[in-house]
Design brief:
Structural class: alpha/beta
Radius of gyration: 28 Å
Shape: globular
Distance between the termini: 53 Å
Largest sheet: 6 strands, mixed
Number of helices: 25
């Protein structure tokens, strides 16, 4: 493994700022609205200017940062412009009376906030400004989808009226969209602002990046990773998106621009890959067949304008329709120039493998079922700055060729019709439909035929995992020592917030029992997520730009450099695997987690993710590509069946993962919560073994999503059905409370009755242990890390506390209450106190917090305390001065799942004293279950 390299925070921040700027997408810029000019007075409208959305919510956004620079924060630091302070004051007074709505917690947070109504007087008073910036915001998050309604995908009436009034009053009105994903854009034509800029969610340096673009220090060079159509109904997936039981992927391979450029160009407002600049470029390109396996595209980009800038060159193929049918365009390559001065040129060479645009025949229509093929005909290449403007650059004639011979896997079992391009009477392609080919193989029989023979049990021979690292014994010799119970324990991860690894993280896995530790197996650590390290104990980390924004940069070296810094931060915090990048396809704009994901295109998704992995691997840590696969809807995600053809799976929904594995060296993968074609992915043998390991030669390990389920085909999934995970090749179930509890699921029983074998468990254990041997966790366990690395891991840095030194309070075995003596806590204004709390495993349910409080202040004093559990705001307690009298305040903390948690109190005023704090069970699981019934 490589040498430890300390984290350079300043470089980290600079790269994040650059990415936030280069991911901004300029859709419109009339009246020379942008960039802002020296001496401009700027009027800033919109409450979200005061509350920047650095990221979405859920596991993809819970990063505890030292600071967040919002758009308004950054503009206030600009010396060459002035802001309308009277207008800002008007907003500040209104926001005091209309505070930010936090919602009701996980999965119940409003996508937008109430907006201030603009009176004519407010607008008139700001007319002295030279330009107006209108900030519109949307958050997003896990466990709920967007909706085609005002305040979500659509603007509210108040927002639309704000944009319309300001656009009429100011010739230079700039609308800035601080959103996680594309939203409805019909209002641009109706309200006619001079400029529109998507700035997405840029992490803690996001505001600085936006200001760099607004001021012209960075010329906008981001490109859309999704097609923006006129109406949500125009997207071919909309017809069954959101169904809670069965979601048929009828559009098949015609996702996003593949559909619109083939069938419905007229419905597009902004095409895939589109993005304006403050300058202009000319692109000339030539594509030619290099050899039997490759095509070479040479493109020369000239800056024909008056401003320095970068341009993205995009390469698309138009394949012959053949018998399979193809989209009219498919992205097969891209590259970004450096900064070009006016008149400067740069020539880019983009190599395209023919394999990248082969088609999968899942029906046998070509005579080669279950093969990737190149059908006979002319393959045309189009090169430009977006899918619509890309110009013809060359073609070559391809004879029919079988590119790769595979085997049928994951085909649907229930009949449905899928889209196929058919020629219309006018010669254009029209969307037709055909029956999707159904499954003809039995994955269970395939699994039984190919399962590993068990390694004979030897008992403890004295071998340690370090001996495998040092090549003294083989992995097989080492694993032969492990008992059935040892192997089952390796199958289970523990979390969240396991005390066996870095505090506040998502899971510990590997050596979690004393017996496994005796064999020299360390506990490895993973944590969320795609936008940075999530520590539920409150440890601060760096919040990065979200996935969609990073995709919009189309800049692979920049993203790799950014994630090299993320890898260093992980290693310094003893995190071996980040639970990201998120790689699911933007099948529909309403998916609540699109902000975590990258694009509607699998090629772009795959490469942006691959370089994230490559960047992290420079510190011998890695990312976990997720959610594998077809997790394209949050509503009822644990149960809704994704019904997809095998061709669409392979060409669209699996392709990005394939790129990340083959090109990025991914070695950690997370399956999804729900089923694909009737089989929950956590126990899908063809997904996790036939395709992933058999076809892609993947040699890493696979984990489930947290508390995932699996099923035996034909039966519903349950929370205790884990045996199919074992036999399918899902190496670790995430997560449980105690991995040594053999009665928590059906794994031991399935081993005893022969449904799973010791060989299955040994194979999975070897996958996990091979992974651990490639991470710093084994070096830490063997005390082989440098003193420099130890010091970096032990230092407090900018955090309020050293997480490893936190005091943990355990529940009273008799009452189940957790009692904390907080009398010595520092309640000074602005301070936080954090402690660990451990509840009883059989006392999970909804909890209240009771706090003894007093203040010597008079009753007009206001003393606010914010209560966090696992770094999520749960409640706020505000009391008045008690004149020295002790009082008790009780609040609902909601549901507690798992034993280990972190309690944090933030004190908003001086003068408060605390006594005992009690966490008390209000309703146990058995009562809650009755409520659900």
């Amino acid at each position: 493994m490589g040498k430890f390299t300390p984290l350079d925070f300043n470089k980290y921040a600079a790269l994040a700022r650059q990415a936030a700027a280069e991911g901004c997408v300029l859709l419109k810029n009339e009246n020379e609205a942008l960039p802002l000019r020296k001496g401009d007075k700027v009027a800033v409208f919109g409450r979200i200017a005061f509350h920047y959305y650095k990221s979405g919510l859920g596991s993809g956004g819970l990063v505890n940062t030292k600071y967040v620079v919002g758009i308004l924060d950054a503009l206030k630091e600009e010396k060459d412009i002035t802001l309308d302070e009277n207008l800002l004051g008007t907003y500040e007074k209104w926001i005091e009376k209309n505070p930010y709505d936090e919602g009701q917690g996980w999965g119940k947070v409003p996508w937008s906030q109430k907006e201030m109504e603009l009176t004519d007087e407010i607008v008139e008073s700001a007319k002295g400004a030279d330009a107006a910036i209108v900030v519109v915001g949307r958050t997003a998050g896990e466990d709920q989808d967007n909706k085609n309604e005002a305040g979500s995908y659509l603007l509210t009436d108040t927002e639309k009226e704000m944009v319309e009034k300001v656009s009429k009053a100011f010739a230079r009105t700039i609308v800035v969209l601080n959103v996680g994903n594309i939203i409805d854009m019909k209002w641009v034509k109706e309200c006619n602002p001079a400029a529109v800029l998507y700035v997405w969610q840029g992490g803690q340096e996001g505001g600085n990046g936006v200001a760099d673009v607004l001021m012209g220090r960075v010329n906008p060079c981001g490109k859309l990773t999704d097609t923006i159509a006129e109406n949500i109904e125009d997207y071919p997936s909309q017809g069954c998106f959101g169904d809670l039981t069965r979601n048929e992927y009828k559009e098949d391979i015609y996702v996003g621009y593949r559909y619109f450029e083939t069938f419905a160009k007229e419905k597009v407002l902004y095409p895939f890959g589109f993005g304006l600049s403050y300058t202009t470029f000319a692109v000339t390109a030539e594509a030619e067949e290099k050899d039997v396996d490759n095509v070479t595209v040479t493109a020369t980009v000239e800056n024909t304008g008056k401003t320095d800038g970068k341009e993205v060159v995009q390469v698309y193929v138009k394949a012959p329709q053949g018998v399979l049918g193809k989209p009219s365009r498919a992205l097969v390559g891209f590259a970004k120039t450096g900064v070009l001065a006016p008149g400067a040129k740069e020539t880019l060479t983009i190599d395209v493998t023919k394999e990248s645009f082969a088609s999968y025949d899942d029906s046998g229509a070509t005579g080669h079922k279950s093969c990737y093929v190149l059908e006979e005909g002319s393959y045309e290449f189009y090169v430009g700055s977006d899918v619509r403007s890309a110009a013809f650059a060359g073609a070559y004639e391809q004879p029919f060729k079988v590119v790769e011979i595979l085997t049928e896997a994951m085909a649907p079992v229930e009949a449905f019709e899928r889209m196929k391009a058919v020629p219309g009477e006018d010669g254009t392609l029209k969307p037709g439909y055909e029956a999707a080919p159904l499954r003809t193989v039995d994955p269970i029989e395939r699994m039984k035929e190919n399962r590993m023979e068990p390694i004979t049990y030897t008992g403890d021979k004295g071998y340690k995992l370090g001996d495998v690292l040092d090549k003294k014994v083989t992995m097989e010799e080492f694993v032969a020592q492990l008992s059935d119970e040892d192997l089952i324990c390796i199958f289970r991860g523990e979390g969240m917030c396991s005390p066996k690894v870095t505090p506040g993280t998502a899971a510990a896995f590997g050596g979690l029992t004393p017996e496994l530790q005796e064999f020299g197996i360390p506990a490895a650590c993973c944590t969320d997520g795609p936008s940075g390290l999530r520590f539920d104990c409150g440890t601060r980390a760096f919040s990065m730009p979200n996935g969609t924004l990073l995709g919009c940069t189309f800049d692979l070296p920049l993203v790799e450099d950014l994630y090299e810094m993320a890898g260093r931060e992980m290693r310094q915090n003893r995190v071996d695997a980040l639970l990201g990048p998120g790689m699911n396809i933007h099948r529909n704009p309403l998916n609540g987690r699109n902000f975590e994901y990258i694009s509607e295109d699998p090629y772009l998704t795959g490469w942006i993710s691959a370089v994230q992995i490559l960047g992290m691997e420079k510190s011998d840590v890695t990312g976990t590509i997720k959610h594998f696969c077809a997790n394209n809807q949050e509503s009822n995600r644990h149960h809704v069946d994704a019904v997809v053809s095998e061709r669409a799976l392979r060409e669209i929904y699996l392709k990005g993962y394939e790129i990340a594995v083959k090109e990025g060296g991914a070695r950690s993968i997370m399956s999804t919560y729900g089923p694909v074609n009737g089989i929950w992915t956590a126990g899908n043998y063809d997904l996790l073994t036939t395709i992933l390991r058999g076809e892609w030669n993947y040699d890493g390990f696979v984990m489930t999503d947290w508390w995932a389920m699996s099923n035996r085909e034909g039966y519903e999934a349950t929370k205790t059905t884990h045996a199919p995970m074992v036999s399918a090749g899902n190496d670790v179930f995430m997560v449980c409370t105690d991995c040594s509890d053999m009665g928590q699921d059906d794994v031991k029983e399935a081993l005893e009755n022969g449904e799973i074998t010791r060989g299955d468990l040994q194979r999975n254990a070897m996958n996990v242990l091979h992974f651990i041997l490639g991470t710093p966790s084994i070096l830490r366990f063997l005390d082989r890390i440098s003193e420099e690395e130890k010091e970096a891991q032990e230092q407090m840095g900018d955090n309020d506390f050293v997480a490893a030194d936190l005091v943990t309070y355990e529940a009273d075995p008799a009452t189940g209450d957790v009692v904390i003596d907080a009398s010595a806590w520092n309640t000074k204004k602005g301070n936080s106190e954090v402690c660990g709390v451990t509840i009883l495993a059989d006392k999970m349910g909804t909890y209240d917090i009771e706090i003894e409080m007093k203040s010597d202040l008079e009753d007009l004093a206001q003393l606010p305390v914010t209560v966090y559990i696992d770094n999520i705001v749960k409640t706020m307690i505000s009391i008045r001065g008690t004149k020295g009298e002790w009082i008790k305040e009780t609040r609902d903390l909601g549901f507690f799942f798992g034993p280990n948690h972190y309690l944090k109190l933030y004190f908003g005023a001086n003068g408060l004293e605390l006594g005992k704090i009690r966490l008390k069970l209000r309703e146990g699981m058995e009562v809650l279950s009755k409520h659900e019934e």
